[in-house]
Amino acid sequence: MAGLQEPRRVTELSNELTRDIDTADPLGIVRRLCGSDAQLFAGWGGHPGVNDPVILDRLWKLSLKTAALLKENQDQKKNNRIVFSGCGTSGRIAWLCSWTYNRILQKFGHTPCFHYLIAGGDRSLIISNELPEDDPPKGAEDLKKVAEGADHVMFVGITCGLSAPYVAGQIDHSMHQPNMTSVLMGFNPVSLSRNAPIEKWDKTCRQVFLELETLSCTSDSAFIINPIVGPEPITGSSRMKGGSTTAVLLGTVFLTSLQTLLGQPILPSMTLPAREPEETEVVFDHSLSPSLSPMVSLLDCYSQTYQTVYRHSGGVASLLKLAASCICQPSGRLIYLGADTLGALGLVDASEMVPTYGVGLEEFRGFVAGGWEGCGNTEGDLSGYGKTFRVSLSQFESDVLPSLTDQDCVLCLHGSSQRTGPPHLHTIVNKVLASPAKCGLLVMAENGMSCNHLLDKRYETAVLIRLPYYHAFGKECVFAGFALKLVLNAISTGANILKGRVYGNEMINLRLSNDKLFERAIAIIEKWSGANEEDAKFALLRAIYKQDDAANVTLSHPACPLLISEYYLSSLFLSSLSLSSSSNIVQYHPTSQRHPLRTWLFHWLCYWQEVGVQSVIAAERKLLQSAKGLRDVISTEIAPTHGH
Q: Which residues form the SIS domain (predicted)?
C-alpha cells in the first residue's frame, strides 16, 4: 500500500478544538462544534478559505460561466446541463442542491437543467455503498449516460478529501471532452490529494487532479474550488464541515447564476448593481471584483445563519440530550419527521449514521411528507428495495408508529413558513405526541412569522431558531436548510459521542468498506498505539481475520464490507501492548463511563493473554482508580503468558 506513506490530508487530521469532545457534556459538545464550524468561514492554518480573494475570484468566474449556459438554454433553446456528483454525503448534497435549483427554475417558468450523480445510485441516498466509490470507470460511465444528448455539460465533481476514485474517473473523462466544463470541489490542497494506487486503473486521484489544476491555469473550462476549512470535528467525518462547506459553495455559485438569469435578487435586501472598489481596497482581479458584491453578500448570509444557530447552543444541546437519552438505551431510536427540504435533510442525516458510527439500520431514521414523490431523485420511488427505503409519513405510520416505546425519540422538523405544514404531518405528529415516545420539536423560523400554532406542551423539548435569512428568491428555504443541517449534525454526532462511539475525536466504530476507510483505520491504530504503519496494518489484519500468525493473514485489505467492532478496537489496544515503543499510550478516562472499553479488555486480555477474568477485573479497577497508561497497568497487574 504505497499510498499509505503519503502525508496526511488536512481533512484526515485531528481538529485540536475537539480533541476532548468525548468527555464533554451536551452543551460542551455543541460549543466545540461551533468552534470547528467557524473555520468554514474564517479559514484554517494560513490556507485560503471561502472568503479568500483567490477563491472568490474562481467562484465568480464559475458563476459567470454557469449564467451563460443558463442563458443559452433560455434564449437559444440549447440543452446545456449542470451535473453535480459525489460519494456519500457529497452525493447527497448534490441531490438536495440539484433538486432545489430545479424547483427555482420551474417556479420562474424555466426548464430544469440540474442533475446529480451519487456513487452506488439512488440507494446510496439511504444506505451507503462505499465500494463503488473506488471505481473510476463506473464514475466515467455514469457521467457519459447523464451527458448523452447535451449540447454542453458543466460537471462539478465533489470530493471533500480530494480522495474519491469515482469522481477522479469522471474528472479524467470530462476534462478531455470539448463540450464539457470540469469543476473539482474539495477541501485539501491538490498536492495532498490521494495518491494511492487504484485497483483496475492506471492513474491516481492526484495525477488526475494535478492535470486539471494545470489545465485550469490556461482554460476557462477547468476550475478547482478548494478552500481549506480545517480538519473535521470528528476526524475524517466529512459529512459535517465538508458537507456544510459544499452546500455553501454550491449555493454561492449557482444561486448567484440564477440571480443573473432571473434578473431578481436572491434576497430582497440584496441588490443587483455591482459596486466599484474603493481606492484603498485590494482586489484580486480588477475586471471582476467590482461585481463580487452579491456573491460576498450571499456568503455573509450563510455566515450570519451559522452565527444565529450557535447563539441557540443551549436549545440545540437540550435536543441533543433528549436524543442521547434514547440512543443510549439498548433499543433506543432517533426518528426525524418533516416535509420538503427540511424533511429530506432529516433523511440525509439519518442515512449517514451507519457508515460513520456502525449503527443498526433502524437506530436512526428519517421520514418525509410525500415520501419519494416530489423528492427529485432520479430513480423515483425506492420503497420496493426494503423497509429502510420506506420513508413516507404513511409508511412511518404503518411501520414504526405502532412500535414506539419510551426508549424512542421522535424529533419533528418544522419551518415556520410552512404554517401548519402538510395536513398529514400534523395528524402524524399528534399521534406521536400521544405515544410513549419522547418527542422534540425543532422550528426554523422566518423573521416576523408567528410560531404559536406549532407549539404543544406535550413536547418534552421545543426549540425555536429565528433566522435573519430564510428563503432564496422567496421560494426555497436555502438558509433554513443550512441551519437545520448544522443542528442535526450536532444532535446525531453528540448522541453517538454520549453513546461511546467516539474516542478523543476519532470515530472508532466505523465500517471498513473501502480503501479510504481501511487506510483511516490504520491511521487510528498508529495514533493511539504509537506503532509504525506496517505494524498497525498487521494488527488490524490480524484482528479482522482473527489470526495471531501473520502467515495466515492476507497482505491486502478484504474486498468486502467489514465492521470495525470489538475486534478492530481490540487490535488497537493489542498494538499498544505489543508494538509500541513510545510512551504515548492510550489513557482511560476515569471520569467517563461512556466508552465500553472494559468489554474489549475482557475479551482480548482473556483471549490473547490467557489470564483469568478475576485478574482482568482487578486490573481494570486499578486502571480506573489510577488513570495509569494501559501498558503500565497490564505489565504490573497481569503476568502475560505469551508475548503478544
A: 66-277, 323-501
